[in-house]
Give the backbone structure.
Amino acid sequence: MDSDAEGATDLPMDVVPDDREGTPRAAAQDTLTAGGLMARGDRKRLLADLRANAIPALVTAVLFVALFNRPMRLLASDWWNNPEAGHGLLLAPLAVWLIWRGGVRAGASPNVRLGLLIMVGAVLVRYASGLAAELYTMKVSVAMALAGLTVFAYGFRQLLAWWLPFTIFWLSIPLPELVTSTLALPLQFRASEMGAAMLSWREIPVLLNGNVIHLPGGHQLFVAEACSGLRSLTALLSLGVLLGGMTLASAPGRLLLIVAAIPIAIVINGIRVFLTGFLVFFVSPELGEGFMHTTEGWLMFLIAFVLLGGVAWMVSQMEGFVSRRRSAHA
């Protein structure tokens, strides 16, 4: 032993801090991760594991593509062709980046049995949904399989540590047509009612018939399913989850932000209907369709996002205040 190491306590070479799943140290780390922002782990371990297990990783990737080729193609087609699911083009790559940013948690260890169980379940769901022609469940099986691979390689607690990217990826999967149709109709009526009420408040005589607003001069404002606000609502909910996961530290704060996204989206869409009717009546009917109508929708969504960001800031300030109070009374 060197002289400058005298007095140090020697430990056996096989005694290391126990970060394995199920130990008190691991449980404490998971509590910190769940209660705060998504903790950053070791990014280099991802690449190191891929290099060290290049052949098994390649075989796994080939089998994954072979088993889940159809649901992955359906997802890509939805993201590219379905306006209601276009946010998936942003969310799916963002989920990959969040996994890279988060890295692998310290002490992560494989859970082979549970991982295999989840993957077998994903394969069964994929082919059962294919036989039943249930496309939404088939697409969800891709997320299930990825979760199973995560548990297989790094354990269940790593899946919990990556809750944000997995939630973001799940939100990128478009809802079934039956669900969207059921949600869109009441949203259409609500937007029509709010738009008509605001137009009446501005002393513009209107007649509301379902989701059709009749304006003076023979003009009609039809609030179609595409204008129901469902598209902006789903996108805003996804942004709420993302903002909450990256800027807020508590589960109640994140839930409050997600809930706040719903009235913000509904009110903003009602204002959009009002502005469209206002411009059609006072300026030109051409402003109610085409490029100007689409641009107006993007501008209103930007305003909704700014409002949601403001709510996130206020909730973060509340969390900071509560944290300081607790520290002062500790």
Q: What stands out?
A: The longest strand covers residues 207-209. The CA atoms of residues 218 and 320 lie 55 Å apart. The chain has two domains: 24-171, 177-325.
